[in-house]
Each structure stands twice: as C-alpha cells, then as structure tokens.
# Entry
Amino acid sequence: MIPEIGHFALVVALFMALVQTVMPVVGAYRGIPELMAMGRPAARAQFLFVAVSFAMLTLAFIENDFTVAYVVQNSNSALPIEYRISAVWGAHEGSLLLWVLMLAAWGLAITIFSQSLPEHFLARVMGVMGFISVGFILFILMTSNPFDRLIPGATDGRDLNPLLQDPGLIIHPPMLYMGYVGFSVAFSFAVAALLGGRLDATWARWSRPWTTVAWLFLTIGIVLGSWWAYYELGWGGWWFWDPVENASLMPWLAGTALIHSLAVTEKRGAFKSWTVLLAILAFSLSLLGTFLVRSGVLVSVHAFASDPERGVFILAFLVVVIGASLGLYAWRAPNVYGGGRFRLFSREMLLLANNVLLMAALAAVLMGTMAPIVLDALGLGKISVGPPYFDAVFVPVMLPLVILMGIGPLVSWRSGDMRPVFKKLRVVFIAGLVVGAVLPLVTMGRTTLMVAAASMIAVWAIFSSVQYLRDRLIRRPGNRGLSAGVYGMVIAHAGVGVFVIGATLSSAFSVERDVHVRVGDTVRINDFAFHLEEVKPVRGPNYHSDMARVTVTRDGEQVAVLTPEKRTYFVQTMPMTEASIDATLFRDLYVALAEQRGEDGWALRVYHKPFQAWIWSGPLLMALGGILAASDRRYRTSAKRIVQTRRRSAVGPVVREAKV
Amino acid sequence: MKARYLLPVTVFLVIVAVFGLVLYQINQGRNIREVPSPLIGRAVPQFELPLLLEPEQTFSSEQLKGRVSLVNIWASWCVSCRYEHDLLVQMSRDTDISIIGINYKDERADALKWLRDTGNPYEASIFDYDGRAAIDWGAYGTPETFVVDQQGVIRYKHTGPITEEKLRDEIMPLINKLREAGDTA
Amino acid sequence: MRMVLVFILLFLVTARVAGEMTLSNPEDEQRFNDLSKVLRCMVCQNQSIADSNAELARDFRDQVKEQINEGQSDAEIIDYMVERYGHYILYRPPFNMATAILWTGPFILVVVGFVMVVRTMRRQEQSQAGTNTRQQARLRELLEKSADFDDKGG
# Structure
C-alpha cells in the first residue's frame, strides 16, 4: 500500500506542478491576478505531495519492503537503519526523487521568502520552476519509477553498494543536489526577467542571496564528495578529474562567476545581459551534469547504471529547457542596454577579468570532459583526459584569478586610482612573497619553484583579504559596523588562499609507500614509524572485516593508533578498503590495508600528507563566507524597501541607476 | 551584433547534436567501453615462448606467417572464456583455420586439465606464464581474439568472448577474404 | 547491468596474484608513482593504474617497475604503453589536429575574452568623450557618497 501512496502522491505532485506552470504564466501574460496568484499555493502543494512521495519511499526502505524492486536492489535487512534511509538516494531512481524534492523545496522557499516580489515577476518565476518540476517528475514516472513492485517479492535485498555505506555519503548527495537544484532559482529569475522584458538591477538584487545559498550548498557538497573519495577509496587522492566530479565542478565555476557578476549588475547596472546568461548557464550545467551521469554516455566510477532511454528523455528535456531559455536570451538580450560606465582600472573591470578567467577554466573542464566523448563519437580515436591535462590547462588559468582576487576588493567602482590601491597593498604584497616563499621551506624543509610560486599566490590571497578588512574597518563611516557581506567576502577569499596552500603542499610533498609487511614490521615515512601490531577479524552488522592495528611513533613517542580495515560485505562480496586517518592541522597520517599476502603478510599503503586538512578547510571557509553574505541584512531590508516603494509608485521598484 | 547573442544557443545545439549522436550509436549496439587496438594493421609482436603441451618446444612469432590464423588469449581461470570455448572447438572441427592459443597467466596443470575436460581447439597453445606476451599484444582482459594474416599482420581484434554472430558476420568473412587475397597474390 | 557483470567476470576472477616487483631507490619510487598516475587502468571504470586493485593494473605496475629497473626513461615507458594500447591508456591526451582545441581552447578564450572586454571599453570611452565634464564631476561625487553604504564588493 505504501509504495502505491508514494506513486500516487507523485502523480498528484505532477498535476500541481502543471498548475504551477500554466496558470501563473497565462495569468501574467493576460494580466489576470487570480491566475497569477495560483502559483504560490500550487508550489506549496507540489512540495507537500513530493514530500509525501519521498516519505513513502523512505518508509518502504525502513520497513524492508522487499516487494518494491528499488528497495530490493539497494537495501538489505541487515543494513543499519541510517544506511537504509540514505539508500533511498543510493541509486538512480531515488536520487532523482531527492532531486525533485529539493526542487520543490526551493520552490516552497521562494513562496515564503519572496513575498515582496512583484506579482508578474513572481508568477513567471513560479511558472518556470513548475515547468522544471514537470519535466523531472515525468522523467521519474515514465522511465525511473522507484515504486515499481516486484512480484513475487524477494526474501531479502541485494544490499546497498558497500562504497555508499559511509557517513559521508549520507549527507553528500543532499548537499550537492541542494546546490545543483538551487541554481534553478537564479535561472527562473533570469528567465522570468527575460520573459517580462525587464532586466534591471533589481532582479540582480533579488537573485543574489538565492544564488549565494545555492553556491554554498554546492561548495559543501563538493567538499564532502572529495573528502569521501579521500578516505573511502583508499588511494589517498582527493580529486581525480573524473567526469562525474567535473560535472559538479562546472556549475560551481559558473555559479562563482555568477555571484561576482551579479554584484556588478546590482551595484552598477552593468553586464546585465552577461549576468543573465551566466544565470542560465549555471543551471544548464547542473542539468548537463545530470545528463552525463545518468545517460550512460561516459565511463566513470560514479556514474549510475543507466539505459539510453533515460538519456534520450533527459536530452530532450535539456533541449526544451536550455534551448528555449538560450533562444529567449538571443531574442531579448540585444534590447538590454549598458549600465554604468567604467574605466580600465576599476572594480567592474577586475570582476570582468574574474569572469573571463572563470569561463576559461570552465571551458577547460567542459572540453576535458567532452573531448573523449566527442572524438569517440566522431570516430577520431579514443583518448583519456586526466590530471596531466588539467594541471597544464586548468591550474594556469585559475592562479592568475587568485592574484587578481587580492586586488579586486580594494579597487573602487567605475574609475579606480591605482596609486592608493598599490600603496595599501605594497606591504602585504612583499609580506606575501616572503611568507609564501618561506612557508614550504619551514614546514617541509624544501621547496621547488612551482611550489614557491603557488604558495606565494596563496599567502598573498589571505594577506590581502585581511588587509582589505583592516582598510574597511579603518574607513568605516560613522563607526558603523561592517555588514555581514564584507566579512563573508573576506572569509571566502581567505578560504581560497587556504585551499591553494593545502592543494599545493599536499600534492607536492605527500609521501606514499606501497609495502608488503608482516605483522610486527615497521614502515618509515619521514620521521614517522608505522608499526603493524596485529590484524584481527572483526564482524560488522552486514560485513566481516580484517582490522589492522597500526601504531605510529615519532622519536619513540606514540603519535596515533590507526585501525584500517579490509571489509567484505555479505551480500555484495566485493572487498572494501576502509582507510584510517590521523589528521592534524599540518599533516594527515593515512593507512590503508590492501590485500593479504600469504599467512600473516599484508600489502599496506601508507601516506604522510602535509596540509591535507587545509584542502577541506579552504572550501568550508568559502561556504561560511557564503552563509554570512547570504544573511546580510541588506537583502531583508531591501525587500521591505521594495514593498514600500511599490506602494508609493505604480511603476514598480526603483532602480538605483535611475537616480544617478 | 545580434549574431553574438545567438552564439550560446548555437554552442548548446552543437553539444546536443554530439550527445544525440552518442545516444544513437549506443542504441545501435555500440559498446562505448571498447578500445580499438593500435596494433591492427601492424605486424604481430615478436615473441618466442614455450608451448603449453610440449614445454621443451618453443613457438615464435615467425611461425604465425604463411597462413591466416586466429589467435586467442585464454586461461583456465577465466570465466568468460567458457562462453566461447564450444564455438572454438566447433570451429577447429569444422574448418581448417589454425587457432593459436596464448595461455595467459595460468598454471600449467590447470590449463592442461581444462583442455582435457573441455576439448582442445588449439593447433598450438603458447604458455605465457607471467603475462608479458599478452601485454605486448595489447591485451587487457581475457578472452581476446585476433585475426592474423599470411604476412603476420594483425587484421582484427575482439575483446571478450566471441559470439556466434561475431563469428558469422565479422570473423569468418574476414578470414575468407584474407585467404582469397592470399591465393590470388 | 549485464555488461557490468561480464566485466567483473572478465577481470576480477584471476588465478594468481602478480609478484609485485621492488624498486631500488627513492628516486625510482617517485618516478614510478608519477608514471602510474598518468597510465589508465584499461579495464577499470576510470582509474589510473596507481588507484586500482585490478589484476591488470598490478601487471602494468610490474611492467612499469621492470622497465624502470631496466633503465628506460619515462618517455620510453610511456611510448611502450601507447604503442600497444593506444592513447587511451595515457591520461595526457596527445596534441594533434583532433585535440588542438582541447589544449589551446581555454587559453584562446582568455585572450578573446580580454580583447572583447577592452574593445567594449573603447567603445564606451568614445561615446563618453562627449559627456560634459561638470556632469562627470557630479557623478563621481554621487558615487563616492553611495560607496559609503556600498558594503558588499565582489
């Protein structure tokens, strides 16, 4: 009964989404307030029914309903409860339902937090969001129904893929999807603005907090995924340039560009059509990622088992959504005119440079991901694009961006004067060079030219952000506190520096040893001695495992006890490596147990990875910056102000540029 | 000026066209994992290895010349080799095509037992104990099957078990063509 | 799904574990680590031979170690692999007609992007030349005022 309720609720949600799509848009077109007003309740109802549907699927998992095919494929009665719940999004069908749930939740959020938007605009936004929902719910119902029954039912399930039985994987997909789907809000705002023919600074202001929130979820999602790969795959790597990773990085890069471009559009009214394009692009890349992962066109560790029928459906949907919005863009954007003027050395210019570099980096990722597919399809041969390509192309494009990042915030809008900026940054610049050059030497005892350069850039990014904050604190008018937005930006920018330091030092100075040892043997890396004490069998709820005890000493003093495991799950018998990590601020000690060799011999992978924690801390700081920026009071007060202005004038919200 | 605004949608449509093509190819039964061998059209790699059945004798790449042969990389531990084995045995019975086996990373006793139990379709089986010869052949899985012409040039490669359709539609026509070309030359 | 199964059957079930050779010094070990990260494990989904536990990856690792011990250079080892398995085995795509855009595209985009930006600027400055200077001064004044509550930058 429960799966049928879930299925039925999803069908009802589809109708709600249809109402949400058609009524408000027709209403906005014909100027019928009653129809426009239907968008909001329809969106709420849609969320309610999708949530019911999702809850029913979760219930089927919790209750081990092995008459549901999807439950049979992804769960087992011995699976612990937390993984039974996360198994809901452990494969294609359920993760798609999670996607739809997130989408409906974002729609719900708009109905709650955007009370102040003009009716016409909100109606169109609701319509666009509704249309995306219609597409995805149809996709589930037609090709990927998680509620399909298995008759006769199975006695037990085939278990969740052991790779996914991990705490990181419980929250990674929801975060990631919140990010992917969150860009649908900026997308809907952009399309609504294009439809309405009014692309002004106000839509940029409305879009900004939404975009920032989506971006910060995506950031956290990517970090969690990277962290998971680091400890769960057991190879010590944290980014493999796998197509599926790239699929999440592309919208992130577009979203980062969008955040910066929105700032210009909001403040100066410039780059309007460019910003709109970026808003469309960010979400289009989310959709493209969905296609890549689920259509079976690529070979990846993370890709879903897929069939071409699904590929055809998503591709058709892409054509409708992205094709139509880009077509609309080509039609409407030429009529959008300029905005504030600016000089060669100005904040606008630096933000434009930021966008150019981010787009080039995005192009590198897109081409690197697409090239093997394209060449193969055209019969031009099979190639692989991996880390050597991205090191050679992506990194050189991104590093200048980090350099510019240190200067940008200190430059004034419109027409900056170089001299005061350079005066403010002179000391910081020299300090960055010195500290950056010395950092690897002091911490690692050696350096190379490339490492020193990257380290200087990173330290410069941190120092200049701090300098900017100091400058703002000194100059703050009337001793008022600075807004959360300023702190947000400074923290996010410093986070970029932290990340670059981590990535540089970890990849340059990680030491890896692949050894065969017997119980009682010792492996040495740098000053650390890893001593294999014992390997004993351990029984988990749905697996048995060999757990090693490795004590790590430094100068005879015990530093850590690590317990890497080699697990074999009962149902899906593939062996799983559970690495054990001792992490401190400046280094990770990492041990993974590979296979047994003879009586008490084992293959062991041991790593010393300096500054590894910085790789995760950096992006988490960026996300924290995003939280602060999105919580800026400005967005709330501005909403109030807009309501007031709207009451006063019939024309609509006042554009700041109009006053100038 | 308007053309500039059409650029994004144009790029997008190109990408869609490529994906459409890929999906079409997959629907037509194309396996996107198959990696074409760069060795096709080139001479077989040089080797001289002992035979499985007569360990004191060796077999060298020179001995592949002078006739069209089917080279098959196999092992007794290889599960999917079992799917094609009957086909190979049948082929050795019904045709005069010489089938040369490369016994890949196997124990001699296991391999001999396997041939005793299931039939031996091979004119000769080369014993590649450490798997190095197979790497020279660009092998990345078992079974793999090659067609080698009279001059000792690799003409065709198939990864995975051969099926009746493969044999009928691709391998046999190719072998017949190569033989005819050899006869007229 | 069936394909996946076949692949598992094909490659995971093997008789014997490779010997895993050893290297004599840390420099060689470093070279080996670097090389094994750019060579693709042909049978895996998308992993380098360093990152895979597949039998074939182990064979390849042994092969690379052996060639290092024989004194082959990195380029020679890579050529050896590419000759037998094609460019697919190498994570660094070759530079040729088909991949020219891949290698140069992002850099061309940077150049084109900046040229476009500067051109737009020029056009603006030309049209701006006509604006009266007093108006400009007034504008700047307004801007400086607005900068006070202009908290969030980029």
Q: What stands out?
A: Chain C touches chain A through 56 residues (CB under 8 Å). The CA atoms of residues 41 and 52 of chain C lie 7 Å apart.
